[in-house]
Structures are given as C-alpha cells and as structure tokens.
Amino acid sequence: MHRIAIIGGGPGGTITANHLAEQLGPEIRRGEVGITLITDQPDQVYKPGFLYLALGLESPEHIRRPVRELVSPHVDVKLERVERVDTDRRQVNTAAGGRYPFDQLIIASGTRLDPAATPGLAEAGDWFYDEQGAQRLHAKLEALEGGRIVVSVIGVPHMCPVAPLEITFMLDDWLRRRGKREAFEITYTYPINRSHSIPEVAAWATPELSARDVRLETFFNAESVDAGEKVLASMEGTELAFDVLIAIPEHRSAAYLEASGLTEAGWVPTDRATLAVKGQEGIWALGDTTDLPVSKAGSVAHYQSSALAKNVVARVRGDAPTARYDGKTICFIEAGLDRATFLEFNYQRPPTVSEPTRTVHWAKLAYNNAYWLTARGAL
Amino acid sequence: MTDTAKQGTTVKQEIDARGSACPGPLMELIRGIKAAGVGDAVAVLSSDPGSNKDIPDWVDKIGFELVSNEDLGGYHRFVVRKTR
Questions:
Q1: The pLDDT of residue B7
Q2: Least CB–CB distance from B24: residue in A223, A235, A293
Q3: Residue range B22-34: average pLDDT?
Q4: How many Cβ contacts (< 8 angstroms) between chains A and B?
Q5: Do B62 and A237 touch (CB under 8 A)?
C-alpha cells in the first residue's frame, strides 16, 4: 500500500486530504493507497474570525468545526501530537506512541505564536491571533473608557499580513460607534519604513491611518516590554507607553519540525513551484510553515493544495510531478466595520488596492460562513 | 561564516537574502542583528533594488554602522556593525 501522511488539521491539511481522497478514490477503494491525517487539535478554527472575536462581533463556537467532519471518510484522522518526523525510517512518531510510516508526507502544521521571544510581552501584552488572546483582548477593550492603545507588529512574517491593519481600522470604527474614540490615542508600529511590507498596501493604508487619526511609527522593531511601567521599547530606541498593547507576536513553525531538522531559519525550505521540501524525497509542505515569500494566509494554503495534491497523485501513479503553484494569494481587508477591499496577486503580479466598499465587506462576511465548503474541498 | 570585511571588521554572520523580495533582506538583516552581540558585524546579500535605500535608512535610524555597501553585479553586499 502507498501510505500518505498529512500532518496538520488546518486549511492546508483538510483541503489537501479531500483533494487526495477524491483524486485517488479508485486506488483507495482497491486498498492500494491509504491517507492518514495527524493533528493534535480535534477542531479546525477559522482564524480570520479572531478579528471579529476580539471586538465581540463573533462567537468562538461559530468559527470552529470538528476536523473529522471536514474530511472525507476515506481519510483516517489521528488526534495525536507529532513529536518527530523520522526521515531515515520514513515515519511520523507521536507523543502517544503512534508510528505512522509514509511513502509521501505532507507538512501542513502551520505556525505558532511565540510571545516569550519578546521579554515582558506575555505578561503585559495582548494579541488576537488565537482564541484565548482574542477573548482576553475583547474583555479588556470593553472595560476601557480611554487611554493609549498601541498596535505593534513585532514578528514578521506573521499570519494574515493585513490583519494588524484590519484590527486597527475596525477598532477605530468600534470606538467611534461607542462615542469613545476621542478618549483614545492609537499608535500603529511597523518594523520597516512604511506601514506594510507590500508597497501597494502601504501606499493605501498610510493615508487611511492618518485619516483615522492613528499615529504611525515606522522602523519600530519591538525589543522588550516593561510590564510594570507598561512601556514598549524598540531596538531603535523609541519607547511607547500603553494602556493596551495589541501585539503581533513572533511566529515559529511547529516544535516537531525543529526537532526533526526540517527547518532552516525557522521555516521549512520549500520549492516555490512544486512545493517539495528541499533536500527530501516525497516530502511536501504548504501553508504557513513554508519559507516561501508569500503571505501566511489561508488562501495561499488553499491554492497551494491544488498543485500539491496533483503532484502527490502523480507520484503515486509513477508520473512526474508537473503541477506548479504560481504564488496566487487573495486577501480580504476589512477597512472598518462596514467597508472592505481585497488583494489578489501572485509571484509575478503585484496587488492593486481598490477603494473599500460595503459590497466587498458583505462578500467577506459571506465567505466567513462559506469557508467551511473550502475546508471540505468543495469550493 | 566568518570573514574580514573592509576596515578590519570581522563578519560573524552572512545572510544570503538574494531572491527575497522587499522587505525580506532588511527583515533578515534585522533578525541577524537582533541575535548578534554588540560589536559584531552582519553581512546581508540582497538583489532587491529597494534595499539600497531601506537598509542604509534603517542603519541610520538605529544608529548602527554601515561598514560597507558593495555592488557585486546583480546584487549588493551590506555589512552592518551592531555598535550598542
């Protein structure tokens, strides 16, 4: 039997599993191919929902679904934590003692937050990049009547590159609707000399920030947080006092990948077209865990999964893997609570940012619900 | 990798960020500098034309030393020393 192991139950893992189950249906029914998906999380969480959760506009149960319900019944789901990939024996070892041999392995285990990498951040900072953090931030924002809010992009690259701008625009609207905006000073910090790494996004966002009276602090590489004094300090020597620090913490790939020697400078070295892990045979990677110069966004994992699945199927059938990922990325950008725009770009073509509209905002809200069809491989 | 750059500066780390789009090379340099000790120099190779402005601007802002900026034909090699 040709054994395919997938590590990760996020978008990249479930969409790829479903593509493979569909394309390899005849081989699976004949018992020639087996697909195992290994994840330590019983539920998949729709992470773009954290933005809304942080402002009390969404509920945790609405943005999660059991992984077993998202994948084809032909996929064997194991709820276990991966400890190591043994590339010599070609098997995945789990903390529960599971040993899963593979002929092909797909790494789709995303990224994790590492607030501890910034001294003081875990004690005094907030973030919206996980469920607990978003809920804690919401409680804090609800209780505050005024003060200094600092939105600081500390870790680059990070998940959903436009989310820090989105939370800033949404928060501004949220405070205005409550008649409290004038009681707050909002500062947005970014590590390089503009408001976003993508020049076209920066060109659009900088005047938007200014129009909303959000102070922009560039070349700000946060180094430490004084938890007692509530001051964020940068490498460049700038200090910002805050009442609420909305941080985008440093990100890292999963611990088992580092333990398995499958990372370089923190990420999995991956061929930008075929999605094969460099230096490995029959091992592939997609989504947030790769070192590719693309956004760490669900849409990237979605589009990558199409090419990756075709290459895995080709290998099962003894054909050459010829499918290519072209860098396609689509990102919605909430420009407040009732307007949005979106970006579409790839390796060759930079994005353009059009004027935000209510129509795109409603399309975004509709997709937030329709996403589960994507996770199932149907959209 | 360790080598000797201009002015007798010992480069403790060389980061090859060629092919990485803006602001990749600058962010790679910042990551390298964060991990470096005071007095250490870090080199970064960049084929992104934007680096020619971004990297010197950042070094100026933070007050470190731009030891050298060499045009090596198709890419630049910047050496930056962490001075504090």
A1: 53
A2: A293
A3: 85
A4: 38
A5: yes
Kindly indicate the confidence band of residue A23, based on its pLDDT and cuts at 50, 70 and 90: very high
> Is A192–B58 a contact, with Cβ atoms under 8 angstroms apart?
yes
Q: What is the pLDDT of residues A344-361, one digit of tens each?
A: 998 888 888 999 999 999
Chain B residues with CB under 8 Å of A236 CB are 61-63
Measured CA to CA, the distance from residue A232 to residue A221 in angstroms comes to 10
Give the model confidence (pLDDT) of A115-154 as tens digits.
999 999 999 999 999 999 999 999 999 999 999 999 999 9
- B22 counts as catalytic: yes
**Does the pLDDT of residue B1 top 60, yes or no?**
no
Q: Cα separation of A107 and A305, whole Å?
A: 11
**pLDDT at position B23, please?**
66
Please give the backbone phi and psi of residue A377, each rounded to the nearest 5 degrees, phi first: 85, 10
CA distance A198 to A138: 28
Q: What is the DSSP string of A221-272?
A: -EEEEETTTTEEEETTS-EEE-SEEEEE--EEE-HHHHHTT--BTTBB-B-T
Could you tell me if B21 lies within 8 Å of chain A, comparing CB atoms? yes
Confirm or reject contact between B34 and chain A (CB < 8 A): yes
Residues 6+ apart with CB under 8 A from A247: A115, A118, A121, A125, A126, A127, A152, A154, A222
User: Which chain B residues are closer than 8 Å to A237 by Cβ?
Assistant: 62-63
State the average pLDDT for chain B. Answer: 86
pTM of the model as a whole:
0.93
Q: Which domains does chain B have, with CATH numbers?
A: 3-81 (3.30.110.40)
Contact: B58, A235; criterion CB under 8 Å: no
Name the band, by pLDDT with cuts 50, 70 and 90, for residue B4. Answer: very low
Nearest CA in chain B to A191: B27
Asked if A293's CB is within 8 angstroms of B20's CB, the reply is yes
Domains of chain A by start residue, with CATH: 2-110+254-327 (3.50.50.60), 114-250 (3.50.50.60)
The verdict on a CB contact (< 8 Å) between A293 and B58 is no
Q: Best interface-test mutation with A: which of B27, B44, B48 has the largest number of A CBs within 10 A?
A: B27
